[in-house]
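[STRUCTURE TOKENS]
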Amino acid sequence: MAPNADESVKLFLSIGLDEKTAATTINNPKVTANLTAVIHEAGVTDGCDRTTGNLLYTVATKHHSNLLLHRPTLFDYIVSSKIKTPAQLDAAVSFFDNHAAEDFKLNEFEEACGVGVEVSAKDIEKAAEKVFEENKSAIVEQRYRTNVGQLLGHVRKSLPWADPKIVKDVIDRKMYELLGERTAADNEKPTKKKEKKEKPAAKAEEKKAAVEATPEPSEEELNPYSIFPQPEQNLMVHTEVFYSDGSVLKCNNKKEVLDKHLRVTGGKVYTRFPPEPNGYLHIGHAKAMFVDFGLAKERGGCCYLRYDDTNPEAEKKEYINHIEEIVNWMGWEPFKITYTSDYFQELYDLAVELIRRGHAYVDHQNAEEIKEYREKKMNSPWRDRPIEESLRLFDEMRRGMIEEGKATLRMKQDMQNDNCNMYDLIAYRIKASETNIIFGCRRMYSPHSLDILFFTPHPHAGDKWCIYPSYDFAHCTVDSLENITHSLCTLEFETRRASYYWLLHSLDLYMPYVWEYSRLNITNTVMSKRKLNYIVTNNHVDGWDDPRLLTLAGLRRRGVTPTAINAFVRGMGITRSDGSMIHVSRLEHHIREELNKTAPRTMVVLNPLKVVITNLESDKVMELDAKRWPDAQNDDPSVFYKVPFSRVVYIDQSDFRMKDSKDYYGLAPGKSVLLRYGFPIKCTNVVFADDNETIREIHAEYDPEKKTKPKGVLHWVAESSPGKEPIKVEVRLFEKLFNSENPAELNDDWLTDINPNSKVVVSDAYAVSILKDAAVGDKFQFERLGYFAVDKDSEPGKLVFNRTVTLRDSYGKGGK
């Protein structure tokens, strides 16, 4: 059994950990188990010196999984003090990473990590002296603000196996010898001098210098897939399964198994993107696609699109079609499209083999009993039934002779384990129809009663099966059957590693390399499929592709491009830091960056206010040039489009006030503004409706010579001919769907957090005539308003636009 907290603390203190570190460690069950196992394997349960203990602690916390196979060798060298510094340990880890099981020579290993190399105090003194001589002027100038870490690095570079503590002591002493005692000035923070306004040339030089001084990105930033090993390296121990009886199962591929796998794959990377077809994909799946398809593409390998279709009740053809379409829209091309159900026969045969090997049994506990027994860590009464009996019952399950809920096939794992994912997980269950009067369902006569049993047909496999494998049974086995090299998933599946490898080990199957990365969590939304399904089916939103949702269909309908989504995901990296919430402004930043380059400019007035240009003839219409692309050269005719300027123009109601102020740049009585691409106009009169409050129209005069230079610039739309209204369009303005950044924290009250103003429809906006031929999906920047896309609800004569994102970018101003 696992030691209690007091025993663990006592054990950790015995290897030289301080009390704070020991107390912190026992709060993390995984690290506690790792460190306990390391101490026992190293044979230091009676204690050791602090240097040895710190190195063992590093192995347990930082290098646990990729050292499992070579730990006996490593521990011998640590405990015997042949490896005694962190630098030597790092070198040993690097060496083992590049050498397969047993495939190394001890002399090469010892040379690689400095075994037997003695660095004397005199050697360190000499190296430090050289570093100080080379950097003396900078040290004297900066005094105790000098970056001591850089000095340490210079010494360690020439003496990699030197004791870092001794190096630090020597550096500190030499700093004191050169500079003397610290002064009050040394402890003051440097004050920023107010910079004088520089000439443009000086600023340009400074900007150039700043660009040149920008540090080069790391290998992982340049290539996020560099963290993954090559297929031929898959001989390492993947994980350790700690049993409640104290034994440990170390799971890794045997050389002959890996060689067979490599012959089949040709040494290529094989990954899979395995969505369940029980809903629409959301932006979290975009990250999964980026990881799975992206790794295969970067390594010249193959990625399956595999539908994890083990639950026939929740799956629909609609979802299957949607997933394939969205994967293609996101720019990914599957090597092959498969279904878990394609392997139902192979999976059934493997389940039979698992029973024959004594690793599975048919259980008759119901769901409540299974839950109770798991909570109490008790074995099922049927756990030790004879193998032949389980084989017969499993066959009856397959033939539809047992009702749903009366039997399951469970894996015989470890009910007393500290990991609940080893509590004899269900491998197979029976799926019956919800009612006995469903046409198309498979019918069987129960031998135990006169009832006719009806079973749920499968959307892909039809009515051949009435038993279905669980995720825990099918996921790892299909990974193995498809020769997946890298099985990549989110961190919530990390605790299932033990079960994943236990099953493959029990069946002597090839084991893929498993790696978990952090989920993508974004503010002001929900991404739980259960919650998404609820708000869709209960009409809180307008379907799975509602533009307020962060489903990929919703983002596409809103006008977001796959390029922007992939850039956003790439910017997150493939990290294991979990629990962080990404602010939605970060996504919006990437959307703006993309649309700023690809969306042509045009003008739309949301809430029109009529302006009559009194000094322009009523029948006169001028054709003015407006720019689609503001930064393009003027000698390119395609840059421009024509807008009419006539006696009646429309500005937005928000751009007019009766009372002017210094910080207001809109139109007001007696004030001038510039109409974008047009002329300055000056308000000369305001016409009110009968209530003497509502403004009906404004009278203004334009300046045909453009002598007036107003500060304010307004967008506008004009009548194309006298009395002819501009084209009317509907504009839908979207805000965040939820008021709170993390509505999931509200638990059962999450629905009350839905923003009632998340969708505002403007039915009668005015648009310039160039938009009349816009097609569904076309994207534009409405000047001063934001980026918009044509919605699928558009009809002839009435276009509908969705606001994709506003022009304001808050990401660089506090968005995270």
The mean pLDDT is 87. The two ends are 44 Å apart (CA to CA). The first strand starts at residue 239 and ends at 242. The CA atoms of residues 722 and 742 lie 53 Å apart.
